[in-house]
């Protein structure tokens, strides 16, 4: 077999990735690589970060998947520092379209593609870029938190997190769009999730990491993704923001705290626009509670008024229904995500023509 490095000569990056030390580093949910080949066998070698070396850390390991011609053939937890997966074998040459996707989120663990080994007729080639590109900025809902664990009393685990079953990924698929995710569970705009009586958590906010490769509590090959600036080289056509669910646990019905959220949201929109001058922006909220929806709309109105920017809109999701069930920590089920994706897809089609 021939060994191929995961650089842009051989693969199309999915989401925010970094080719460093001959490894394609993947942090945020949904990041990965896509390529095509015609051949008889192919393997991929994946490297885990330091999370794989910590005893008793099973709920924070990275989860990865490999798809061949649209079917998931590998679904694995990176519980060892280095793993090799054979994802295709055939006695006769066949055409293969491959996607390697990080299913779990950035905060707990990151991974890297070290190499792709394949028996091919003419090498491996980057998958074609799609004409549409959407960036999703969000929290646990966007990450697909708990979507594989339909028991609301259970706690977080990367084992039950799957970004491909969540509304954002499903919306990109429905629109035949390339995507990028910037999402962290428990994070907000002015505060991360807080329990009753707990203080604000300003350290758990998305805006500080928006221009980074990612964020992780650990390191990969001695590096932290939050120390790597993102280039914004490929500009999205649309940016979908879904932030406020965790802020709401802090603001509750306090008008002063809600105004802090409103003001910070407006400033975050300016930050997004500074990095993406031509993109349309769509602000959304509501799947796990709609209390801050009017405040989100006020933030967008303030942004329009201050900047004159008209390429921005709002959309509120329907709140999840008890009849559709819940997953870990009362997060949305795949059924709820499907409804959200359907509404968002329809809204985007109208918004973007």
Can you describe this structure in just a few lines?
By secondary structure, the chain is of the alpha/beta class. The chain is built from 6 helices and 14 strands. Helix content is 21%, strand content 31%.
Note the beta-strand portion: 25-35%
CATH-level-4 superfamily name of the largest domain:
SGNH hydrolase
Alpha carbon gyration radius: 20 Å
CATH topology name of the largest domain, in short, is Rossmann fold
| End-to-end C-alpha gap | 46 Å
Oligomer: single chain
Instruction: Please tell me the CATH architecture of the largest domain by its name.
Output: 3-Layer(aba) Sandwich
What is the CATH class designation of the largest domain? Alpha Beta
Total number of domains: 2
Mean pLDDT, nearest integer? 97
Order of helices and strands: EEEEEEEEEEHHEEHHEHEH
Question: Spans with pLDDT under 50 lasting ≥5 residues?
Answer: none
Count every beta strand, where a strand is a DSSP E run of 2 or more residues.
Answer: 14
Tell me, what's the shape?
Answer: globular
Fold blueprint:
Elements: E1 2-4, E2 12-14, E3 17-20, E4 23-26, E5 32-48, E6 63-68, E7 71-77, E8 82-102, E9 111-126, E10 132-138, H1 140-143, H2 167-174, E11 177-183, E12 238-242, H3 245-251, H4 255-275, E13 280-285, H5 293-307, E14 312-316, H6 334-352
Parallel strand pairs: 10-11, 10-12, 12-13, 13-14
Antiparallel strand pairs: 1-9, 2-5, 3-4, 4-9, 5-8, 5-9, 6-7, 6-8
Helix pairs in contact: 2-6, 3-4, 4-5
